[in-house]
Structure formats: C-alpha cells, structure tokens
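Exercise 3.2. Students should predict the tertiary structure of the chain below and write it as structure tokens, then compare their answer with the key that follows.

Predict this chain's 3D structure.
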Amino acid sequence: MSSFAPIDTLKDSNCQNIFTLYGIPSCFWAESYLVANGFFGCSDAYDNEGMVYGHDTWYRFLVKQVDINSTEKQGGIMQGPIYSWDEVGFFTRWTSPNRNVVLCFGIPPGEKKQLQTSLKTNWNEYGCFDPYFLHSIINYEILVLYDRSIWSMRDVIRKIEKAFQ
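Answer key:
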C-alpha cells in the first residue's frame, strides 16, 4: 500500500492522528529535522517473546533544483537563476509476515506519477516479505531528482568557470 501527501502535511496539526496511528516519530516533522538536508531513522517492534514483528523507517531529502532559463530580479538587477527545493519524505512500515506500507510526502507531480507506476510494476511476491524492498524503488526515484538537480546546476557552474578563464 502507498499513499501520497503534500510536504506541508508534516506541519499540519490536523494530521497528527495519522502520525499517531502509524507511530511516526515526532522528529519526522520537527523544525530542526525539516530544515536539514536529509535524515534517516528506523526502529523495530517486538512481540512478547522478543521477536521482531515490525520495522519502521523514516527519511527525508532536500534537493535543490535550478531553473537556468529564469532569472530573479531584485530592484531591477539580475540576481541569477531561480531555484526551488524539492522536499520529499517517506515513512515505511513493514509488518511480519507480509505487509509493506509507504507514506510519501512532497513528491513533485512528475516524480509522483513515476513513483506510483514503479511501485505497481516492480512489486513482486518477495516485496511484502522484505522491510527494505520499497526502499530500492523509492531510492531510484530520489536518484532521478538528484540527477536532475546536478545537471540543472552544471550550466550555471560552467558560466562561472568560463568567466574566470
């Protein structure tokens, strides 16, 4: 099962019931974590015999995107390319023996559709038995965000390099 929500959901006090229901740790929406470039955490749930019956993970990334075709003006003076941040977060819950759930926050529209498709097409009979199965799919889509970010900055950096040659 997967669910998608805007990143602002993390700051919405009306959504605390969802966080409580899934046992999402408060650090996931704490201000100090929200301004960090990224973080990862995990925890296990144990039954009365000390056996693991569940595994939760939570992680978040900030990815800078530069639009080299647009420039920002302040006081009529060009300030450089406009940039934005992709703020994406994930909470996963695996429950023994065979249930995997992912909550996705702040996925850009294009990547959201691709991630939904990837989750559906890459799911297999082993996916529900592996707590980190969803991570392999999610991380590939995060890699696409970072790749786009790096290439968007390449032209900006190249202009600076040429100016100093």
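Discussion points: Helices lie at 16-22, 31-34, 109-122, 133-163. The longest strand covers residues 52-74.
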